[in-house]
Design goal:
Helix content: 40-55%
Distance between the termini: 86 Å
Radius of gyration: 31 Å
Structural class: mainly alpha
Number of helices: 10
Mean pLDDT: 84
Number of strands: 4
Strand order of the largest sheet: 1-2
Shape: elongated
Order of helices and strands: HEEHHHHHHHHEEH
Strand content: 5-15%
C-alpha cells in the first residue's frame, strides 16, 4: 500500500467512528464510477475539506482510465450549487495548473471519435431548417464586435508548417472540395459581375496591401508556350492552356 492509499484509508476509517456536528458531505469510499455501491458500508460523512483531500488522494492512487475519472471528479469539487459548502482553502497555482492540464487532455480524448456524442450522426433537414431560421438576420452588437476585435488584437498566429499546408490542400481536392461538381448558373455569374463593376478600394486599403507585399518576391511559373516566367497569380488567366502563343493543333 502506497502512502496515498494509507492516508486515504486513515481519513475514511476515522470517519466511520465519529459524529460531526454541522455541515457534512457524503463520500463513497469506493467511488461509484469505479464500481462502488450506495450501500451504507461504502458511505462516510466528511467535512468539506476532508472530502476535497480524499478526491485529491484518489487521483494520486489510480492510473489509466480510473485516474481520468478521478481527475474529473476532483475538478468538480470546486463547482458550487445551492446547499453546498465547497472546500474554500486556496489551491496553489502549481496544483491548479496540474489539475487543469490533465483534465484538458482527458476531456479532449473523451470527445474524439466514437466517444463523441454526435459521432456518426447528422442533423435532419428539419433541424437544419430550424437552425438556419434561428440564425437568419442575427447580428452581433457593437459591444460583441469590439470584444472580438480586442481579443484578437496583437495576437500572432503560429506559422503553418509545410506538412499542415499539404494536408489541408489534399483535404480540399477533388470530391473532398465542397464545390466539387457544382455548376454556377449564368444568372449567378451576372449578379457577381454587376456587384463587382465600379467597386473601388479605399486609399487606406490599397496602401495596406502594398505595404504587405513590398519587398516580397512573387513565385513565378514558366509558360511552355511563350517561354516566359509569369507570376503565379496571373498565370492561369493569360498563360498555360490560355496562352496566345499556344499551338492550336
Amino acid at each position: 500500500m502506497n502512502k496515498y492509499k494509507t492516508w486515504y484509508q486513515n481519513i475514511t476509517d476515522r470517519a466511520r467512528s465519529r459524529t460531526i456536528e454541522g455541515y457534512v458531505e457524503r463520500h463513497h469510499v469506493m467511488p461509484r464510477s469505479l464500481g462502488g455501491s450506495d450501500d451504507a458500508d461504502n458511505l462516510v460523512s466528511l467535512t468539506a475539506r476532508e472530502h476535497f483531500v480524499c478526491h485529491w488522494l484518489l487521483v494520486k492512487m489510480n492510473q489509466g482510465e480510473a485516474r481520468a475519472k478521478m481527475v474529473y471528479a476532483l475538478r468538480m469539487m470546486k463547482a458550487e450549487k445551492h446547499g453546498q459548502e465547497r472546500y474554500n482553502t486556496k489551491i496553489t497555482a502549481r496544483v491548479y495548473e496540474t489539475i487543469k492540464r490533465e483534465y484538458s487532455i482527458i476531456a479532449s480524448e473523451m470527445s474524439r471519435g466514437k466517444r463523441n456524442g454526435f459521432y456518426g450522426k447528422t442533423h435532419t433537414p428539419e433541424a437544419r431548417a430550424a437552425i438556419s431560421q434561428k440564425n437568419t438576420g442575427k447580428k452581433l452588437t457593437v459591444e460583441q464586435i469590439a470584444k472580438q476585435i480586442a481579443a484578437q488584437t496583437g495576437r500572432k498566429r503560429k506559422t503553418f508548417s509545410n506538412e499542415w499546408r499539404a494536408k489541408m490542400s489534399k483535404s480540399k481536392q477533388g470530391e473532398n472540395n465542397n464545390r466539387y461538381g457544382v455548376e454556377v448558373l449564368e444568372s449567378t455569374r451576372q449578379k457577381i459581375r454587376e456587384k463587382a463593376i465600379g467597386r473601388t478600394q479605399s486609399a487606406e486599403t490599397v496602401q495596406k496591401k502594398a505595404d504587405a507585399i513590398r519587398g516580397s518576391k512573387r513565385e513565378k511559373k514558366l509558360c511552355p508556350h511563350c517561354n516566359q516566367l509569369i507570376a503565379v497569380n496571373g498565370y492561369a488567366r493569360f498563360h498555360g492552356d490560355k496562352c496566345k502563343h499556344r499551338d492550336p493543333t
